[in-house]
Structures are given as structure tokens and as C-alpha cells.
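B., you asked whether I could sanity-check this one before it goes into the benchmark set. Here's the sequence:
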Amino acid sequence: MHGFYIEENSSEINLKKSKIDIGLTGISLKTEKEYYIDECMKLYNIFKIKSYGTLGLHGILIGLLLYQMLKVQKIKNKKDKLDKDDLVLFDEEQNVKI
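And here's what the prediction gave me:
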């Protein structure tokens, strides 16, 4: 991460410039490089949380789809069994209904 900062800001390197960082823990004085790296890490953490949230949501949706597929398959199996039983009850060769 440090190398990226130097490559992007090679013409403006001045480690003596300071920025004031205000956070939950208090106020601190940081160099531009430290401030840049901290901001990149914050953005990376936000990206990571969003990515894991999206993956989790997709996992839940896949689970629900699998549950629905199994439910539909059970209903189809029951319907096929009833159709098979109906064929036995209403046999066309005997022309007799029970």
C-alpha cells in the first residue's frame, strides 16, 4: 500500500505536511501518507463488509430456492403417485368403477 501512494503522488511527496484526523477515539495529527493509507483502509473495510453481505444474501436466496425446488418435487411425486393410483382404480379394460 505504501508503494502505491508513492507512485501516485511522486511529484507531490512531502512527508512534513500534516492533516488533522478527527475520529471516535479523538483528534490526531497525521502525515498525508498516513492519512491516505488510513482512508484507503476504511474504504477497503466498507467494501469488504458490502461484499460479505452480498455473498451472505446470495447464500440465503440459494437456500430458499433449493427449499422451494424440494417442495415442488415432493408435490410432483405425490401427484404422480395419485395419477398412478387413479389408473388402477379406473382401469379401462374392465370398464368398472369401484
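One thing to flag: The mean pLDDT is 80. Otherwise nothing jumped out at me.
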